[in-house]
Amino acid sequence: MIGCTLIQAGKTMDISELVSDMTWSGRKGAAGRSVSMTLLDAPEYTRSGIDIEKGCQCIATWKGAELLRGLVVSQGRGKSKKLSIASRDNLIYMANNDDTFSYKNRTASQIFVDVCTRFQISYDVVADTKYVIPSVSLESGKLWDVILEAMSLTYKATGQRYYVVSFKGKVSLLLRKEAVQQWVIEDGQNLIDYDFNKSIESLVTRVKMVGDQGTLVASAVNAELEKKFGIFQKIIQKDNDLNAGQLQEVTNSTLKLEGLAQESLSVTGLGIETAISGTAIYLIIPDLDIRRSYYIDEDSHTFRGNYHEMKLTLNKTNEF
């Protein structure tokens, strides 16, 4: 069952009985997760009394397990005698705060802790990202932008993926593989529907890295792809903070990532609360000859009464 507790003006209210449906969602690269709810709002019910201008916190649960704790950011009413509300977790403070940033010789972990400390954002687990980033600067940008940049630079240098989550009012920086819990989604079992597409429209077969004057710094070519499809070249700019070996590594990894056919796959299935963006599932669809692991890039979970359904946008991975 859906549970909803509101905290407003120092008072705590359990309004679970007023909730008719709830959608809980998130996506890769976005700052945090959100919950939207539809509440009964008629004279015959005890009304929720929500007023977002007074500062209202929401704790959303499903079968007793907490899904989201955060700020109610919008409310709306219509003639249907229903009230809609939307809440965001504590990563909204990274998405909606601007500042200037200048870091030298810091790890992504250190940048994450500094950002949280400066803006009084409570944090919990901070993975040790190890790689020392030579420089990260933003003259004016979101807190979330500098965290994404730090994680991106770390990934380019190490191949390690990190992501940020908010749980029970605290944010954490996690190593993606360590945080993965794989569930199986199988056609004929818990899979309801799927949508699969493949394209080579954005295929890259060779990459050149150039310096400030257009001079060639590093290059990489996939000869096998060029035999099949011809030349599709991409130019990337040199990062002056990297040495020659690192520049070649960035060039190679760019070709590896973009020298593949682009696949899009989304599935609808019976709901699993822990199947959210940043985690992975194992998918079995015999008709598509699919039996492998996928990362979840985007998720939307819908709850009504005792029913839970999820729609997931997936990204193929070979990391398991």
Summarize, please.
By secondary structure, the protein is α+β, with helices and mostly antiparallel strands. The chain has five helices and 21 strands.
Individual helix count: 5
Name of the top-level CATH class of the largest domain: Mainly Beta
Specify the CATH architecture of the largest domain.
Roll
Let me know the average pLDDT: 92
State the share of residues found in helices, binned by percent. Answer: 10-25%
Tell the overall outline: globular
The major pleated sheet works out as: 13 strands, mixed
- Look up the CATH topology of the largest domain: Phage tail proteins - horseshoe like beta roll fold
Unreliable sequence segments = none
Task: For this entry, give a set of tags.
320 residues, globular, three-stranded mixed beta sheet, 4 domains, Elongation Factor Tu (Ef-tu), domain 3, Phage tail proteins - horseshoe like beta roll fold, Phage tail protein beta-alpha-beta fold, 13-stranded mixed beta sheet, alpha+beta, 21 strands
List the helices and strands and how they pair.
Layout: E1 2-8, E2 11-14, E3 19-27, E4 34-40, E5 56-62, E6 65-77, E7 82-89, H1 92-95, E8 98-107, H2 108-118, E9 123-126, E10 132-142, H3 143-158, E11 162-167, E12 170-175, E13 183-186, E14 191-199, E15 206-210, E16 216-221, H4 223-229, E17 233-237, H5 244-258, E18 262-270, E19 280-285, E20 290-304, E21 307-316
Parallel strand pairs: 9-12, 13-19, 15-17
Antiparallel strand pairs: 1-2, 1-5, 3-4, 3-20, 4-7, 5-6, 6-7, 8-10, 11-12, 14-18, 15-16, 18-21, 19-20, 20-21
